[in-house]
Amino acid sequence: MKIVLTQPVGKVEKEDKKSNSPSEVKMIKQAIINLKIEPEIVLNEEIDIKFINAIKKFQRLFFKGKTDGKINPRGSTISKLNYLAIGKTIVVDIASQNLYAISNLAQIYKFNCTTGDSDNPTPKGIFNIIPGRKHKDYTSKTYKVPMDYAMFFYKGCAIHRANLVSVTSILKNAGIDYFGSHGCVRLGDSDAKTMFTWTPEKTPVMIL
């Protein structure tokens, strides 16, 4: 469902006499929570620094130098938010080593994953599953290892099947960087199959 605003939401100026409608503030907070942008903000009608910073965090994914913490009814920030809120989106949270499959702001799946190490980090930002770059059977041309159920989203980086992902995800989450990938997002066997089936080409991939 499309998010529609009638007033600016977030960090507003004095000239914004009509702003931060309580119901619209709560609606934006719900979208930010459901998209895992900042799941720890409080779902209420108040404007606080965590909420403002969550808007800025989202803006940094799309825009360079445009982090004002404000969402205008017909601005670019609400447009980008709706881009992710309508239809399917994949969210990868590097901090928790989790991958989320979200459809119309509802969480469908949550899987452990393993992302890149410090020398080969998984790129942060907004990407898409590249058309023609979904491969059920695939072998890395660089490392000569299987990458089945590969879905490429940025250059040589893909979401794909790997072994021992539950273990490496826990180790990565504990701060042991050695077990990271070369920038890809690794999933366990059944999880990779599920995501491969669930995900159409051009699906947005948000990496936080």
What features would you highlight for this structure?
5-stranded mixed beta sheet, alpha+beta, 4-stranded mixed beta sheet, 5 helices, 208 residues
What value does the Rg take, in angstroms? 18 Å
**What share of the residues does DSSP label as strand, in percent?**
15-25%
Share in helix: 25-40%
Query: What structural class should be given to the helix and strand makeup?
Result: alpha+beta
Number of strands: 11
Distinct helical segment count: 5
- Major β-sheet profile: 5 strands, mixed
Order of helices and strands: EHHEHEEEEEEEHEHE
Mean pLDDT: 89
Runs in which pLDDT lies below 50 for 5 or more consecutive residues are none
Distance between the termini: 23 Å
What is the general shape?
elongated
Strand arrangement, largest sheet? 5-4-3-11-6
Summarize the structure in words.
The chain is α+β, with helices and mostly antiparallel strands. It contains 5 helices and 11 strands; from the N terminus they run βααβαβββββββαβαβ. It has helices at 22-34, 49-62, 76-85, 165-173, 189-198; strands at residues 9-10, 70-71, 88-93, 98-103, 106-112, 125-128, 134-135, 150-154, 157-161, 185-187, 204-207. The strands form 3 sheets. A 5-stranded mixed sheet has the order 5-4-3-11-6. A 4-stranded mixed sheet has the order 7-8-9-10, covered by helices on one side. The protein has a two-stranded antiparallel sheet with strand order 1-2. It is elongated and about 60 Å long.
List the helices and strands and how they pair.
Blueprint: E1 9-10, H1 22-34, H2 49-62, E2 70-71, H3 76-85, E3 88-93, E4 98-103, E5 106-112, E6 125-128, E7 134-135, E8 150-154, E9 157-161, H4 165-173, E10 185-187, H5 189-198, E11 204-207
Parallel strand pairs: 3-11, 9-10
Antiparallel strand pairs: 1-2, 3-4, 4-5, 6-11, 7-8, 8-9
